[in-house]
Amino acid sequence: MTEIMLEIDNVSKIYPGRRGIFGTSAEVHALKNVSLSVRKGESFGLVGESGSGKTTLTRSILHLETPTSGSIRVQGQDLGKLSDAELRRLRSRVQIVFQDPYASLNPRMSVYDIVTEPLVIHHETLGLTNRQRSDRAAELLSLVGMGPQHLHRYPHEFSGGQRQRICIARALASGPELLLLDEPTSALDVSVQAQVLNLLCELQDRLGLTYFFISHDLAVVRYLCDRVALINRGELVEQGDCAEIFDAPKSEYARMLIGAMPEVKVPETA
Ligand SMILES: Nc1ncnc2c1ncn2[C@@H]1O[C@H](COP(=O)(O)OP(=O)(O)OP(=O)(O)O)[C@@H](O)[C@H]1O
Prior knowledge:
Blueprint: E1 4-15, E2 19-20, E3 23-24, E4 28-39, E5 43-47, H1 54-61, E6 69-74, E7 77-78, H2 84-91, E8 94-97, H3 111-121, H4 123-126, H5 130-143, H6 160-172, E9 178-182, H7 190-207, E10 210-215, H8 218-224, E11 227-232, E12 235-241, H9 242-247, H10 252-259
Parallel strand pairs: 5-10, 5-11, 8-9, 9-10
Antiparallel strand pairs: 1-4, 1-6, 2-3, 6-7, 11-12
Bound molecules: adenosine-5'-triphosphate.
């Protein structure tokens, strides 16, 4: 039986209205009864336009938002029911790579400090000595195709693609099984995007990772993902195997998104 890595079960999130000088704004239903499951070892894409709820769902998986209703389970563990200590342990197994490698690296930290920071944060769970930490730092850089000579350099000395490799190395430091990839290539030059996507594919094969890939770009999702869910205004409108959705989209929303990709043929409406 296929092992389930991540299960989102009927999750809704309502943000209360905000009070301002012109009165209180309406509440926002950012997620409406979202259900999906991600199998161990697969790449699952979540695609939607700006404001569709992708960030809210991602933050909920990281337990940075609490759903208004529904549950989220990682390897069968319900995030809403874990103790603080259990949550800390789980956090070392779920990591995120953000969209913008320029904004997500502290310019005052060396590459060594950046990639070993999660080892310090998760010290209780991982328990590495200083020597093991330093070996691990070199190993992490090598995993993302960079040499140990870069460990004592600073983010401003690197290109966008190299910075994203450093972000990936940091995300891998605690030995996660599930990586949330939040538009990891959209801030990069087109020529570098393919290199980073190839690296992600290689790492997945090598380390048996599960990817939850958030994007508004169906072309990238088609390249990387096995299955995909399309989200519109907080609701999942379609989900299934990538090949099926690309070849025979059922919803108007899927047709619209696919139609916006010049290189993908859109089947006629039935
Ligand atoms: N803290 C908040 N308080 C109130 N409303 C919020 C909050 N965070 C998000 N929203 C609203 O929830 C909806 C979903 O936003 P979300 O950021 O999850 O979308 P998104 O798909 O990630 O968009 P983008 O691709 O632009 O990041 C939007 O209408 C947004 O304005």
